[in-house]
Amino acid sequence: MKFDVLTLFPEMFEPLKQSIIKRASEKELININLINIRDFSQDKHNKVDDTPYGGGAGMLIRPDVVDRAYNSVKSENAKVIYLSPQGKKLNQKKVKELSMEDHLILLCGHYEGIDQRVIDKIVDDEISIGDYVLTGGEIPAMVLIDSVSRYVEGVLSKDSISEESFSNGILEYPQYTRPEIFDNVRVPEVLISGHHKNINKWRRQKSLENTFYKRPELLENIALTDEEKGYIENLKKEVQ
Ligand code: 4G0
Prior knowledge:
240 residues, Trp Operon Repressor, Chain A, 2 domains, 9 helices, binds 6-{[3-(dimethylamino)benzyl]amino}pyridine-3-carboxamide
């Protein structure tokens, strides 16, 4: 997976040079290429922005500069994503779909904004990471790169993907490690029993319980056995 990031602030992407994303880059499972839009200014002062036609506060990034930055990385099969609070909300399904792509070009806007003509010309998909406004699209671009990279073959073990929150549509069960007693609280007995059938059943119940209390709307969209439905009905009675 290749990520090309068009940004005025390439230095903001240092966090991606850590941990799992660093290893994925070293193994060439992903390739993160940072393009400074300013490098495509043809102005003697490297200017990239100008005042909006029709008046108003702030500055806008010029379309010609963004277009030259885009032309330096574009490919036949690339998908261009504009990170914006006006985009469709990112979720795990969308993340999985994006991980099937070969080449993503991420366009980061700033408080100033970008001339609409180049957005209309080059952008395929407008994506938001949530309903709030940030000073720039860089953090959303990092969120997208991190979440998508996890699904790229070889970045995570198959086990960590299949066991995580949302992969089965509900939340995770709680986990425990040593010490067996912490602050007078014991690790749940069943986990020490070595009885794997009981452990799986307990974990499934805890997942359902967690989901019932924290994200009950998720339970509407998943198939449950009659036994699991009964378990949920009991939780409802306890709540009343
Ligand atoms: C484009 C994304 C980019 C338009 C970007 C702001 C939040 C998100 C930006 C604007 C961003 C998000 C219209 C304010 C840069 N903030 N939620 N800021 N407008 O994904």
